Structure formats: C-alpha cells, structure tokens
C-alpha cells in the first residue's frame, strides 16, 4: 500500500492568514499541520508517500521533506493546478499508485485516540486482502458541513451524502480513506457536483453501490479535528499541547517515528536533531536518541 496526502487547496476558511501561507505549514502547537497525517502514514509502516500540492507551494514542501530519504522514506509530489475536489486527487495520483492500494488522507485533519493505529492497520489489511473501500465515521454536531453516513437498524451503511441540507445522521466521514486499486478508475467516472467539484463522497457512494464500502465508527475515545477552520485549528493546537505536556511524549514527531520504525539509525536521528538542539523539539529528539 502507498499513501497519498492531499495538501493543496486555497485554505479560504482560514483567510486572511492563508492568503500568504499554505495552511498545511501552519503550526498545530509545535509542528506544521502536515506532520500529523504524515505521522499516521508512517505509523502504518507505509514508506512511499505522494503529496498533492499547489504549484506555488511545491518548493516549500520540498524544503520541508525533500525526497524523504532522511526519514528512510520515498516522498514525491504532484502538482494540482487548481482545486477540483478530493476525488481529483486520486486521479492525479494514478501514475504514482500504479495499480496499488492506497491510504488517502487529508492534510488538515488531526487524529488522536487509543488504538487508533491498530484500527487503521486493520483497515489497511482488510483492503489489501479483500479490496473495496474502508472509511471512518465520527459524531458531529454540524453534519451539514461534511459527508454524512446513514445506517440501518442493523448498523449497515444505508446511504452517504455530501454536505446534506437535511442530514440523515450525525456521523461524518473523516479524512482517512483506504481504497483498493479500483479507486482511480472510479474517481475518473465521477461527475462534478453542484459545487463544481469531484467529491470523494461520490467515490464512496460507488463502492457502496457495489457492496464494497466498510465504515467503522470512532467513538468517545477518539479526537478528530478538521483543522481547516479557525476554531478547530485553535482547538487542535490546545489539544496537542495538553497531551504532550501531560505525557511528556510528542504527537506527530516524524523523526521519532522513523527511528522507532528502524528506518533511520541512532546516528541519523542525532544528525537531524542537532540543528534543532536549542528548541524543545530538538531536545526531545536527542532524549529519544539517548534511550538507544
């Protein structure tokens, strides 16, 4: 399985800040927003990652991540000339995926929860072994803003609808999607919505029609932030700060994950930490290196 992280878009919900800065570079507490989805991909032991980015942001993404070799990964980039919807990202990733299964993530979503990686790994295994699509639902108070899943009395998925005016439930599909190799072709067949976008919900609907869509609900033990709004952005930062201060452990620290995965050596971790030695982030990495 490979990973694709959607990191383009115009960030209009965070204007005026994002007029000059891509939202994915904004700090969620002590790290760029984009570190958080990348860290989940890394925790799933996926080493091949494609970022879909705006033309004007490519250089900064390359400055931040390069080719990923310093993390023991292979990171590449695909330019999105203008926002066309999330399903368009799958089409843009066709050459990179080359028929492989995909973990498709939104670059502005932050997740935290007990056994989160275990649950995501189960979804990954399910798609690799049996195909189809696997997504996650989360209870929200404002379902009009999201893709919403409706269930029957037995808990089976009955429908899925993008930003409904009359929501049939309060369970939103969050920004983690697992798809088999058919996802790209399905995305190619999606018709633009009333908003003029190729909606990811339309891809999920097609899998649902084929009886190949699985939805797992994330309960009270999970936190999900769609950090593309001012309030959610602030809440995500405060949440990460609280967890890290209470536990002494970082969330979304990509260098630590690469080291613990065995993708980089202790010496390589120290090399990455030294330029940051005066910061709390660098000091944390050096402490991790001492453990070894």
TrEMBL record:
Reactions performed catalytically: dTTP + alpha-D-glucose 1-phosphate + H(+) = dTDP-alpha-D-glucose + diphosphate
UniProt domain Nucleotidyl transferase: residue ranges: 2-241
Keyword Magnesium recorded: yes
Cofactor(s) of this protein: Mg(2+)
Alphabetical list of SUPFAM superfamilies matching this protein: Nucleotide-diphospho-sugar transferases
Alphabetized Gene3D superfamilies for the sequence: Spore Coat Polysaccharide Biosynthesis Protein SpsA, Chain A
Record-linked InterPro entries: G1P_thy_trans_s (IPR005907), NTP_transferase_dom (IPR005835), Nucleotide-diphossugar_trans (IPR029044)
Record keyword Hydrolase present: no
One Pfam assignment: NTP_transferase
Keywords, in A-Z order: Magnesium, Metal-binding, Nucleotidyltransferase, Transferase
EC code: 2.7.7.24
Database matches in PANTHER family: GLUCOSE-1-PHOSPHATE THYMIDYLYLTRANSFERASE, GLUCOSE-1-PHOSPHATE THYMIDYLYLTRANSFERASE 1
Similarity annotation: Belongs to the glucose-1-phosphate thymidylyltransferase family.
UniProt function note: Catalyzes the formation of dTDP-glucose, from dTTP and glucose 1-phosphate, as well as its pyrophosphorolysis.
Name assigned to this protein: Glucose-1-phosphate thymidylyltransferase
